[in-house]
Amino acid sequence: MSACPEDGERVILVHVDLTTSQQVNDLTEFITLADSAGVVAVCVITGTRRSPDAKYFIGSGKVIEIQRAIAAYDAECVIFNHSLSSSQQRNLENVLKIRVVHRTQLILDIFAQRARTYEGKLQVELAQLQYMSTRLVRGWTHLERQKGGIGLRGPGETQLETDRRLLRERIKYIKKRLAKVRQQRQQGRQRRKRKPVPVVALVGYTNAGKSTLFNRLTNADVYAADKLFATLDPTLRRLTIAGLGDVVLVDTVGFIRHLPHDLVDAFRATLEEVCEADLLLHVIDASNEHVEASITAVDAVLHEINADKIMQIKVFNKIDLLEGVTAHSEYDKIWVSANRDSEIELLKQTIKQQLEKKLITAKIILSPQQANIRAQLYQLQAVLQEDFNDAGYWQMQVRLAEVEFRRLGLHRGEFLCASQ
Known about the structure:
- This protein has helices at 23-36, 60-73, 86-96, 103-114, 118-139, 141-144, 155-194, 210-218, 261-266, 268-275, 291-304, 341-355, 371-379, 402-407, and strands at 10-17, 40-48, 77-80, 99-101, 199-204, 235-241, 245-251, 279-285, 312-317, 328-330, 333-335, 359-366, 383-388, 394-401.
- The protein is of the alpha/beta class.
- A hairpin with a 2-residue loop joins strand 10 (328-330) and strand 11 (333-335).
- Helix 1 packs across helix 4 and helix 5 runs antiparallel to helix 7 (155-194).
């Protein structure tokens, strides 16, 4: 369901301020969304209303203004920075004589362009079909009122039911395929838990620089561009941090204000990687003048997917675009530029400090009969130092997750050295 299928399509953007408090941010983001979709915005029409018009969303005067702009710029499509009802969209297309697209369709179109993996394409298609199913019901309500009569029996209602059935079947099929993906991801997480390597997930507003930061941390080659939603598919890489060991770093899809709920649902399999993380790196574009609004939007999505209680570091990125701001850290906040190596090292040390809070470091003593526990500790890469005493016992300094420390029973007094 491509809303604007041709690159370079000439479009008119329409933004109506209904709240007044966030107009600039909304409009700037809207223009960036259109650019990310690959269209050419030939004209931006703005206005203010207390409430949407029931028929056109905008007033009749604004409709005339758009008609004149279409003629002047030879536009092929009109895009609204708002959600339109199916009747409003149909009424606008009837009077403007060209396609009318609204914000949700625009975002779905960008997602369709960006999806690269089989899973990503499935998730986008699911979101599109779920969106279409709601529009189908609303768009065909005039047929549902037709209870029969001369010339009105059968075909309309039959076609509606056929469309509904086909959509339901395809949605059911995609959900089944995504369930298998979710199961595979769960198996991968279970394998990682058997060898508990901390998981660090990058989250943040779209275009905050997550993929660039991910590439610099892991020397990966994940696609990164100055566009919204450059990354849709989660990518996992191993990162070694001095004094801590290996961690798994996860790059994820960017969030946005007013993210369509269908997209959150469709990408829930991907977002599970965020929910299972030990630490979140909330990447923030420090050069964005509306930085607080973007932080609030990300926090809202994290709350929706039940990931808001996970330990978090706020990473204020792109400080190289600001004057007088130098790299520094404050407890769970850090200011860096992904383009400078020295600041990447500072970020690694901040990650280390936060993850160490979830680890237990202890000195233990094991008898020769407890060699199986010693073997498990080495398998977990938890042994920092090991010596033998005169009685042939192992004296070890270990560091591992609290859950593994207790699973192995190391919290019991018989294992702890007297110095503990």
